[in-house]
What we know:
This protein has 7 helices and 30 strands. The chain is elongated. Strands 14, 15, 17, 19, 21, 22, 24, 25, 27 and 30 form a 10-stranded mixed β-sheet that branches.
Amino acid sequence: MSEITAIILAGGTAPRMRPLSLDKPKSMISFIGKPLLSFLITSLKLNNLLEIVINTSFEQGEAREYFSTGSNFGVNIKYYESKKWYGTAGTTKDLIDKMKDEISNPFMVIYGDSLLKANYQKMLEFHRRRNSWVTILYHRPNFESFLYEYHGEIIKDEKRTNYGIMDIDLDNRVIKIVEKPLIAEIKNKFADPVANAAVYILNKEILDFVPSNCFFDFPKHLFPLLVDKGIPCFAFDIEEGYRVDIGTIFNYYNTQLAILEGRIDFDFYFPLSKEGIWVGNGSTISSIENLKKPVLICENSRIDLNTSIECSIIGDNVYVGKFSSVRRSIVLDNTHIGDRVKISQSIIGENSFIEDRISLPSNTVLGNYCHLGGYQLIMKDSDFYGFIRR
């Protein structure tokens, strides 16, 4: 597998991850104590897929700063900074046109907002055995429980799934693919629907069908075109693995709590202090009895006297003051929470400051660099305040 290049697309605008993505790429937002992108890189390394190209937007240098050449992570990383986002297929074509011989044929594409567990070695073998031009990883989620998060008006009874949906034949050839159809369409127009898991093995020849310098997506534009033309497109079963889309605030929040509660197979890298309680290096807790499992406290954080933490994730360098409570919430790095503060079912962005005696309403999302106190919410942008909604 080491001869196959894996391209990670991490340069989108991420409107569904606001407010957290307003000043940070979504793939670099902290997830279980590390940037989400680090888990993708680890999964590639475990499959001996060591040649990686990360696509980022022109203004975003966080990935390069954090991962550098990849040597500390056991992989070789190169970067391609897009001046403009041309969609998944258009941006990939632009990247390969510029990097040319640095990209293998075939190559792999992975979306940077995915949490994945899959056998890429078997997928590549399948791709070669079927003489496929495109192989799409697929899984079988509960479609009705994963709904698209609208940003405009919601039309009654017209809910969309958050997945691309495919029909495949007995030979696993793709015979239909529709991006984010209505729930009713899945029931009525697909014989045996499966979901696109957003990992593709592609022959370079398929990029001849992608126009240059215009918006073009893999699942929305290119794959339906290839299927209509009869070009070999196959689907590979994720089997015992999984794929979770972390590209929305709703999924970002719920996936982390599902991991914390043991509902998703995930290897914690933090020391286990007691059953259901993980505490990172350098963190101090005045009374561990006030932690109600499951709880993850990352590194160099401090939980003060008589403070209750329940089913929550506390990031690096966080202080939680006396007589406060944090319940079913995610508090990101470098945040200060004062005394007698109450937080429930919420997300608190990085580098935020919450003064004493503040009670946040449930389902609050604060973006990075918020200062809350004195009956005022001070933010860098008016969009920084939101709610977790289905």
